[in-house]
Amino acid sequence: MTEDIKNLHIIHYPDPRLRQTCGPVTEFGDELAALVKRMFELMETGKGVGLAAPQVGITKRLFVMNPSGEPDDKRVLVNPAIRDPHGSVEAEEGCLSLPGINVQVRRAQRCRVTTQDLEGHPIEFEAEDLPARICQHETDHLNGILIIDRMGPSDRIATRQTLRALEDQYQH
Ligand code: ZN
After folding, report:
1. Distance, CA 54 to ligand 1 centroid (Å)?
2. How many CB atoms lie within 10 A of CB 124?
3. What's the pTM value of the predicted model, to 2 decimals?
4. Is the N or C terminus of the chain more exposed, i.e. has fewer CB atoms within 10 Å?
């Protein structure tokens, strides 16, 4: 299994695994730690600030993030839930599974996040601005939701060709 984890890569829209509702993580151990390590590698190579397990083809409820890009800001969220969303802010988002797509997405400005860490310990924290946005974007992934589901009419027109090209690439 460890060898399989090394071979994981980021999958792109319209791969159907990005549309599944992910199942809970129930096993905490070496395999989960190896998966998380690989997800951080792929996120950093892609210059992303967050990456969810379904984006590497693993339909389990976990994601990694690093809002600031600093080594001590790496976070692992297992079985996360967003609570008490407040405020509403629109900002541009991209996604490592949607190369070439950047769209305006409206999200809560702050929220509470309840989750587990890599060892399964419960954690709860307040997030606002970028970390709150990342948590909402990545939790969407765990429910099969992508930023193209949340974009407005003008982005829908602007991204049409890029999305079609991604669909053609996937079929070939
Ligand atoms: Zn994404």
Report:
1. 10
2. 10
3. 0.96
4. C
Residues that place a CB less than 5 A from ion ligand 1: 95
Q: Are 105 and 152 in contact (CB under 8 A)?
A: no
Residue 138 is a catalytic residue: yes
Paired tokens of 1: 């299994």
- Structural contact between residues 28 and 39, judged by C-beta atoms closer than 8 angstroms: no
Helix, strand or coil, per DSSP, at residue 140: helix
Are the beta carbons of 5 and 90 closer than 8 angstroms?
no
Structure tokens at 60: 């389990």
3-state secondary structure of 90: strand
Inter-residue contact 99 to 12 (CB < 8 Å): yes
Asked if residues 88 and 107 have their Cβ atoms less than 8 Å apart, the reply is yes
What DSSP element (H or E) covers 19?
Answer: none
Residue pair 123/117 in contact (Cβ under 8 Å)? The answer is: yes
Domain range list for the chain: 3-171
Superfamily of domain 3-171: Peptide deformylase (3.90.45.10)
